[in-house]
Design brief:
mainly alpha; 2 domains; 581 residues; Methane Monooxygenase Hydroxylase, Chain G, domain 1; 23 helices
Length: 581
Amino acid sequence: MDSIKTVLSTLLTLAGSLGVFLYGMKLLSEGLQKVAGDKMRDLLAAMTSTTIKRIMTGLLVTAVVQSSSATTVMVVSFVQAGLLSLIQAAGVIMGANVGTTITAWIIALLGFKLNIGALSLPLIGIAAPLLFSKRDGRRSLGELILGFSLIFLGLAYLKDAIPNLQDYPAILEALGRFSNLGFFSVVLYALIGAVMTVVVQSSSATMALVLVMCSNGWIGFPMACSMILGLNVGTTVTAIIAAAVGNISAKRAAFFHLIFNIFGLIWGLAVFYPFVDLVSYITVQGGMENPGASLSSIPFALSMFHTLFNIANVLFLVWFTPQIARLIVRLMPLGENEDEEFRLRHLNVGTLSTGELALDLARKETIVFARRVRRMFNIMRSMMGSQNDKELQQIYERVIKYENISDRVEVEIANYLGQINSSDISSEANSLQQALLKIIGDIESIADYCDNAAKIWMRKRKMGVEFSQDVQGKIDRMFDLVDGAFAVMEQNLTGDYNHPDLEAAYACEDRINRLRNELRAEHVKNIEDGMYSYQAGIFFSDMYSQCERMGDNIINITEDIAEMHTPIKGLDTDEEEARLD
């Protein structure tokens, strides 16, 4: 009974130690992303013109955020958003694989060589006041320091929690059997490394476990190297989960990450023993003892294996990137009806953990939403020129389709924005979050007015009411003004949010209002003079009123942008994304 309690206590202590380590990694990564968020996203979007730049970008971003998973999730999101092509994403992913090895070096050199755990509590003492600061930058710095402290505090607990194997002869015997199965042992431990990484969702955490287990003699140096090969494959699951709800481009990017690491595992296993010997030779030449015979050199040797393997994997496979990309496109072709039905282009729940990036994607989705409603407006307008009842019905059904989709899009974007924790983002980003919630409401209202106008026109046709050429021309003038207001609105949505063109927007609104007033005055006079029937006058009045209300919501959108007073940079999206048919 006592032995069961001891084993249970040991397992819970290990789980708790790993939990502290993982939470530290999370805080460090989030803190670094907040401190360098905008620069990091700009780097990802801009530094991808050549293969070398892509690899270096992935390496640097991962080194900064201390998480290859965070980098690959961002890359998958950028591919989904159309900011990166599959080839560009491939280079960044390769670089991220190399960048993540820096974490192993930090753990090996500081966590094992120095007693950083003793400094953790003083560092937490420094971080605590910063966490309660009113300034976003100081709070982010506090998270960064707290995360750094918890990583090494968790590592210290982890080292102490690993029991001496001499006290557990049965486990020692089992590990000995698993390690003496020849090449099968190598494959088995690679599988264990992959599964462990899938479970803990962090290659850095698995690497820390491998370092501790090998340093304490639980597993030999070759088997630890094999687990490192496996953790490279296991870490791809995070990007796969993020891409699962994304579009085909996002899925392809995540699949490239998996294929790239599987290819690495295959050739790594093929040359496993010579590669392990090479790392041992480098370690000895560096003035340390052979890692196969001395536990003291294990942290350095495993970190060296991790780094050399990932660098070699990049150098070997970078030449085949186009071929791998073509293979992936063949394996994951565009479906026959891909993107024909409603689908959010840019939002996916995998990016919610990176709040600032999630807002960038929400803004991009909002732009697509606005363009889609403008397209709905033009479809509705085409009803005016249709003389065929069947054709008119088909156009009307398209308008209804767009209206139903607009209702869903508004809800989806609003729910997505609501899931972004305002405490995890900067005040500027919080301002953008609130503005987007207002903007999507205005866009959906415009869709409602388009739908109303389409229904008015259908009732007019069914009642056999006809407009004179003069009346039709006046409606066309109003439509032209609304379309011009749409153009200015779209320009402001995609432009610099600190300098929206308010003058142009107000000019459009003024022209719409003046024409509305002119038509209203003429309408009353025309009814009195019998220029057209009362029923025709009602339809005419309803049509220009719907247009004027669209204009009100269009100007509201520019005003929402102007009220932010924050330097949000301009961006663009593919106009074809607004097409549903």
